[in-house]
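Structure (tokenized):
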């Protein structure tokens, strides 16, 4: 297939619509956009439509671009993503981008679910039986992959913060979110790499989570594929920043 045919095929698969023609106010821009994302990037690398849409949903949640997020929640459904895993992709952004932006993304996501006849609220995916388990079960996920890196790095904080800051990370990121069902740990780590890259300025954390994604079972090619796929949404500079930060981990 040529590039034009690839773009048309992918638009049909994801959006059940034709690729951009001469309609609208900015047909040239839409043709460039769709040609790059859906004619080039979507055909490069090993990730399937389902995983690519989870990557896209994650990046758009980070960026707070709600109209595009709604379009890709629908594309995710069309690509075979379960509503629960779409929700988990959005939920797990909260510790990184904050609760307000995540709430906005949840609202947009739920609009699409309602339009598709998905009954809300979705089934619960939490596995914690008590507040005390937040730390214990979170640490059980965190420590084998990341060790005591954060605890050691912030031992210099004054007062009780040397203990509180690492504990909050363990309890919130790993306890409240990573103990949830609905998405396996391998996928969570891959999406965490993408969301950190999309934030910009978090290259130290990108490298740490690339190492975590590889330990969780993702291949180097899958990590690079996810980052390259995200580039049409987060921009080329953030792609290069992430790749440069992780060169020693991802080099073939």
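Design, position by position:
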């Amino acid at each position: 297939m040529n590039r034009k045919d690839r773009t048309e095929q992918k638009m049909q698969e994801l959006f059940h619509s034709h690729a951009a023609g001469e309609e609208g106010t900015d047909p040239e821009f839409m043709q460039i956009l769709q040609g790059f994302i859906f004619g080039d990037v979507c055909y490069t690398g090993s990730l399937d439509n389902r995983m690519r849409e989870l990557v896209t949903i994650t990046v758009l949640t980070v960026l707070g671009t709600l109209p595009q997020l709604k379009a890709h929640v629908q594309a995710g459904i069309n690509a075979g993503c379960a509503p629960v895993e779409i929700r988990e992709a959005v939920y797990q952004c909260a510790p990184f981008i904050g609760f307000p932006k995540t709430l906005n993304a949840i609202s947009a996501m739920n609009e699409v679910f309602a339009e598709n006849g998905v009954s809300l609220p979705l089934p619960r995916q939490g596995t914690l039986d008590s507040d005390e388990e937040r730390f214990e079960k979170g640490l059980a996920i965190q420590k084998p992959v990341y060790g005591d890196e954060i605890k050691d790095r912030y031992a210099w904080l004054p007062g009780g913060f040397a203990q509180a800051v690492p504990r909050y990370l363990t309890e919130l990121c790993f306890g409240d979110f990573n103990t949830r069902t609905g998405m396996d740990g391998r996928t969570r780590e891959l999406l965490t790499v993408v969301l950190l890259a999309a934030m910009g300025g978090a290259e130290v954390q990108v490298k740490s989570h690339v190492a975590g994604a590889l330990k969780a079972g993702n291949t180097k090619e899958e990590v690079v594929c996810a980052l390259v796929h995200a580039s049409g949404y987060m921009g080329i500079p953030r792609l290069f920043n992430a790749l440069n930060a992780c060169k020693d981990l991802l080099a073939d």
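Reviewer-requested clarification: DSSP finds 15 helices and no strands in the chain. The radius of gyration is 19 Å.
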